[in-house]
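Subject: two folds for Thursday's group meeting

Dear M.,

Sorry for the delay on this. The cluster queue was jammed most of the week, so I only got both jobs back this morning. I'm pasting them in the order they finished. Each block is the input sequence followed by the predicted structure tokens. Could you check whether the formatting survives your parser before we put anything on slides? The first protein is the one we discussed after the seminar.
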Amino acid sequence: MILEMKVPSPGESITEVEIAEWLVQDGDYVEKDQAIAEVDSDKATLELPAEASGTITLKAEEGDAVEVGAVVCLIDTSAAKPEGKDDAPSTYEGGDEGGNSENVADNLKKEQEQAPNTGEKAPNPAEKTYASGAASPAAKKILAEKDMDASTIKGTGKDGRITKDDAVKAVPSMGTPTGGNRGSTSSKMSMLRRKVAERLVEAKNTTAMLTTFNEVNMTPIFELRKQYKEDFKAKHGVSLGFMSFFSLAVVRALKMYPAVNSMIDGKEMLTYDFVDISIAVSGPKGLMVPVIRNAENLSFRGIESEVKRLAIRAREGQITVDEMTGGTFTITNGGVFGSMLSTPIINPPQSGILGMHNIIERPIAVDGKVEIHPMMYVALSYDHRIIDGKESVGFLVAIKEALESPEELLMDNNVMKALEL
């Protein structure tokens, strides 16, 4: 029986996918549920499992864009499983502990003895003459003017003589590089990368995007983490990171400034009474933004557990389209890569994105005295069409206040209860 394997729908609104890579070859025997291909949609990279066991015939090439529901391969389910398929062949040819290296050497010797003798001799290197490396009068003049040694140049003239053209090409001129590798390579962008590019350009072209900045003294959070992180991890199995503090600070600020938790829908402004936070994660296939649903109902433990789960799934390529769909606000952390300051681009159709950055000890004025504290720059990019400057600045100040007074504003003055310890 010949089974036609069709492209399943990866998610709502997706009409086509791209064959990123075939994991099997035409004519291979595959087992049911074995991953046979990786396919790219405009939102994620997914594995395509075999629907039955049998011999596979590929109907699409790597890089082909195929519509959802199209046939990409055939599986002959009546084909018998090849004998010894489960026995993995040894690819090590350097011998083993049993002394098989002698057999390898014998085989190599036999191959050399059996190699055909064409009777041709290796060409002798060109003999040097008095002209080898000698510069013509014109070439000498050019080399003298540029203070170059003729011995550093390979001549292309008769018997290796250095010609005027050799001298001209060998002399470096301002702005004209000579020598060195100047090659380039071309590779097709994945569908996911192309979609990210389209969305970024769309955000720049369709939103009135502005960015406002502030700085946060991270000392209070450092002290809380230092005191409670070991107990937190021992009880909950996840680390007490920065993301839970920032997420809860965002939830608080969005309640204070609901316009930031809104988006434009035609001629209307759609404001949400829940907070779905998209977390930008760098995955093997590019940038992904899994969503923490109803963050307003989650505790420190709940957010840290969800961040860990989604990050692992994204980096292992297991994230689904549903897990990346939606989101009312985005947090991106360029600080993990060493970024000091940036202007993050809005994730459409959202209206705001918070950028975290690296933490650096800097001198600041505290009560009229200079003290050194761990400081972080934060940035809020927002759509000025529905968020005014007063709201954007107030939102970022609310973030700053919550992070600098987390015990009071995020933990209701009860750290043990907030951390569920």
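Second protein, same layout:
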Amino acid sequence: MKRISRRQFGKGVAAAAAAAYAGVSLPRFAWGQPQPGHVEYPKGFLWGCATASYQVEGGAKDDGRGPSTWDVFSHTAGKTHNGDTGDVADDSYHLYKEDVQLLKNLGVQVYRMSISWSRVFPTGKAPVNPKGLDYYSKVVDELLKNNITPYVTLFHWDTPAGLDGGWTNRDTSKAFGDYAAFMGKHLGDRVKHWMTTNEFVCFTDLGYQVGQFAPGLKLPPAQVNQVRHHGILAHGYGVQALRANTPSGTQVGLAENASVYVPVMETEEHIAAARKATRLMNAPFLTVLMEGKYPAEYLAKEGANAPKVEDGDLEKISSPLDFVGLNVYTPSYVRASDKPEGFELEQAPASYPKMFSPWIQLSPECIYWAVRNVCDLWKPKAIYITENGTSSDDVLTPEGHVEDTDRVMYLRNHLTMLHRAVKEEYPVKGYFLWSLLDNFEWADGYSKRFGIHYVDFKTLKRYPKLSAQWYKQTIAENAVV
């Protein structure tokens, strides 16, 4: 008798099932009606999508935009996959109205976008480029016309190349404050929700320590710590500038990819270990923002390499926030330990499941623990999930379909676990899926697709994937489907 593998057996069962159901019309559930068993979110929960300026806009030299460090970096041989650049990307600079219609078709209430600093200030400082400001004014108006609320991030890694020394220079932090004041003054009549910066570790460590991101430097520890300090100081200047230049009631926060620590099991000692890990492993970023000082353990570890802090820095850095945005993709697991820090990181085995991007380990509980750890430690007024999503090995069929069932699985499981945090009354107000579109994925160029709309980068045509259909249904039902 011929041996049949489990895979062959599974295919046989699936084929038999398909034959049995051939020609059978299955009922379609009504839009907007939660079905039995669906995980329903509370009324008023906000659903959105997110993008970033350099990743989607293109128009790199249009209408007076100045170069950013990512323009320089991506045009340097060997820095990005296949030499890809953001020169055109999704061409949202010219196709923004089409993209707003994609958002409207999904039914989202909110949209997280970022502003290209060098499109508004071509050198990073005055003089202003009026056409750059006009572009963002038009985008905001188009969103509002379609009943979509803009949530604006001022800086998503595209540092103006004209700023001498970039983030090694303390003056860049002050320049960011001036830029924030200008944008708040000119868009604050319509934009009521602002984020200063996106993911400190990516534009500091990856840019100045690892060299994987722009500007591609590998500096010694003391300089890296100073770059980190300048990054969070810019946030502080930005918060104060927005407070001073926007109407009362404007909401100000940030989007941070705080490292997420999941306890190996939900017992008191391991839960405590996850909290300790969250505080200490995020010491140079979210911890100092929320506590107003660098943890003593961090300063002791860094010793002579610790950042140089000037009078007033910590007060700016810890300016009160209206919300904390968390970008969540993947976790680390921790267990309680007798070590002085009280925790120990677990190494993932080679067999641990991953998504198409190998750095995304499949662990949907991470989104729950991202919220819980931050809230238990620092009690923020509100939390948004400002990014969550995954790449997939997307294939466009001749019929124009993309069957990204792995992305749907990832999103469904994460939103089910996020619902646990909502149900436990952590102050989660909304969710921004990353991303609306396939786009320029930084050093990975166009080799990794994170969008729920497929983009043909030759024609720039957009195609909704299965995940877009799924997200539209989820929004319509206000429930995980």
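Two things I noticed about the second structure. The radius of gyration is 23 Å. Confidence is low (pLDDT under 50) at residues 1-31.

Cheers,
T.
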